[in-house]
Specification:
mainly alpha
Length: about 200
């Protein structure tokens, strides 16, 4: 395990051989992280006002990109891993910034003492589970689009990879999502189940 330190007195992130789940992190992704670390700190500084949270975001992005490249069987050091990683980092940074803004907007809890209680966490958890189920219903091509979006690729980049237009890629993914949601939301009818023994 080594650490990467940007120029000046910036934050430090730990370059680990394994992620928090014990999975090995690819060497090409680890090298890419060292290459883009300074750039990542600068972007965090510009968006958040400081770069203190850049390390946690980088560790998460490194783990995510490593898993993605392993899943698609990418050859180590063959592609633009640095570009892929900085896109994943920037995506994580944007989400984190939005999350911080939402927390700031909530204000003090006493401001809401007279308001009706919010919906329970069960409904949010159900939504998350449904989303995961829908993702598993995607075709191989649809899953590829989903994975690329997850690590920060823009639609134009995805379209170039799949050799199609930006609009066609968006439309195809939208259809994939609608089909996947229908599969998840449609209740199973035992009367039509061939294994149920009913006509």
């Amino acid at each position: 395990m080594s650490r990467s330190i940007p120029s000046g007195n910036g934050p430090v992130w730990w370059d680990r051989e394994h992620d928090y789940a014990g999975r090995p992190i690819r060497a090409d992704v680890r090298r890419a992280a060292h290459e883009v670390w300074g750039q990542a700190c600068n972007r965090a500084q510009a968006i958040l006002g400081d770069s203190n949270d850049a390390a946690a975001l980088m560790e998460r992005s490194v783990s995510q990109v490593s898993r993605y490249l392993d899943r698609i069987g990418a050859t180590p050091f063959a592609g633009n891993t640095s570009g892929l990683l900085i896109r994943a980092f920037c995506r994580a940074l944007r989400r984190y910034a939005l999350k911080l803004r939402r927390i700031e907007l909530v204000g003090d809890l006493s401001d809401f003492s007279d308001q009706a209680p919010a919906r329970g966490c069960t409904s949010k958890e159900d939504c998350r589970i449904d989303a995961e189920k829908a993702t598993r219903q995607l075709s191989v091509r649809g899953r590829t689009m989903f994975d690329l979006r997850t690590v920060g690729f823009e639609w134009q980049e995805i379209a170039e990879i799949l050799k199609m237009t930006d609009c066609a890629a968006r439309a195809e993914f939208s259809r994939e999502l609608k089909r996947a949601k229908l599969k998840v939301q449609t209740p199973r009818n035992p009367d039509k189940d061939p294994g149920s023994g009913r006509p």
